[in-house]
Every structure is written in structure tokens, then in C-alpha cells.
Amino acid sequence: MVLTLYKKDTSPPSRSVFMTIHALNIPDVKFVDVFLPANEHLTEEYIKMNPQHTVPLLKDDDFLIWDSHAICGYLVSKYGKNDSLYPTEPRKRAVIDQRLHFDSSILFVALRSTVEPLLYAGDKTFKPENLAKIKAGYDFMEKFLTAPWLAGDEVTLADICCVSTISSMNEIVPIDAETYPRLTAWLKKCSEQDFFKRGNAPNILLFREMIKKKLGQS
Ligand SMILES: N[C@@H](CCC(=O)N[C@@H](CS)C(=O)NCC(=O)O)C(=O)O
């Protein structure tokens, strides 16, 4: 097996894959940095591997797969000792899939539209309408969090994928514990997990520094 992950440390979807790799204890992954400001994701060679030119991208021998949610699901199916992070039981799987699609279509879209104008258009402040989208994401999460974990009694890919986005949003719009008690408790619980400490925490600091720099605060 030769596993290569094309990634960017500050990228939330890349961090979902880092956390999954740690949660599954997959050894010997080769990590390749893709420097987006230098358009390394737009080279002919990269586009041949991933026509959507996003990070993360996983290469497993001759198999290529992109989109963090698809990558994480593949890693559990192929390298997990069991299916606990992504159960095959239809109803459990359906609830996790709903959360994963929610991350793709609501949370990450809100985060990306908030951050990109700073990263690539030279904006020095966040647009209020984008900050409102982040708060709307928090509102939904607060309602979803009726069990110990985001998709039930056990930690799953729903937690891993959503927490990489939520922990990044928290750097932009700090989560208010009074308004969002369940979300606050869930984020704390996630941050106590070994996979979070190894795969997300150090890179959140890099994300924080990147944002501060773009806001002219460091
Ligand atoms: N839904 C995708 C989103 C990936 C994504 O948008 N990644 C950003 C970096 S955080 C990227 O590659 N941007 C460059 C581009 O889209 O050209 C996933 O979960 O992997």
C-alpha cells in the first residue's frame, strides 16, 4: 500500500482527513503540501489527478479520490479495523451521511465564502452577510446535537468532518456558550479526543495566524 495525501494544513477538509488517519491509526502516509497561493493545484499534473483541483486529494496506489468526506469514508472502509466511525447499518449510515452533506453544503460553504475574500481578494474585514451564515450553521448544529455525539451515541465521521469546519469558524465567530450550550460542550468533547489533538489542534493555530495576518492583526 502506498498512500499519499495531497493537502494544505490550514484547510479544514484536509484536517478532517488528518483526524481520520489518526483515529484509524493508519501508518506510513506520505503527505504532500499543495501551495494554493502559488496555484500548485492548477498545474497540468494536479488537474490530471483531480479535475476539481481541490485539496485534499488521496492517492492509494493507482486509485485517486478527492473530497474529504469521500476520502474519510474510503479510509474507514478500506483501513478501519471495524466500521464504528462509519457504520454500515442503514439508519446509522443515513444520519451520518446527512451530517456529512450538511458539512459540504452548508457549513463549509459558509466558511469558504467568509474566508476566501481575505485570502484571495485582499479584503481586510469579513462581510456581515457571511458571518450571518456562520451563525446560521451554529443554529443548525445546536438543534442537531440531541445525543452525546453528532450522529448518536458514538463518535463518527460526522463529528470529525463537522468539527474541522466548526473549530475553524470558532476562530472567526467565537461560539457563545450561553446561546449554544450543546455546541460548546460538543466542541470541547471533540477537542479532548486524541485524533483532534493530533490532527486538528496544531493546524487550527496555523489557521488562526493566517486569518490574523490577513486581517492585519499580526
Ligand atoms: N468539499 C471539498 C472542499 C475542498 C475545498 O474546497 N478545498 C479548498 C481548500 S480548503 C480548495 O482546494 N480550494 C482550491 C480550489 O477549489 O480551487 C472537500 O471536502 O474536500
TrEMBL record:
Keywords: Transferase. PROSITE patterns: GST_CTER, GST_NTER. GO terms for molecular function: glutathione transferase activity. SUPFAM superfamilies: GST C-terminal domain-like, Thioredoxin-like. Pfam families: GST_C, GST_N_3. InterPro entries: Glutathione-S-Trfase_C-like, Glutathione-S-Trfase_C_sf, Glutathione_S-Trfase, Glutathione_S-Trfase_N, GST_C, Thioredoxin-like_sf. One of its GO terms (biological process) is glutathione metabolic process. Residues 89-215 form the GST C-terminal domain. Signal peptide: none annotated. Residues 1-83 form the GST N-terminal domain. Homodimer. This is Glutathione S-transferase epsilon2. It comes from Glyphodes pyloalis (Lesser mulberry snout moth). The gene is GSTEpsilon2.
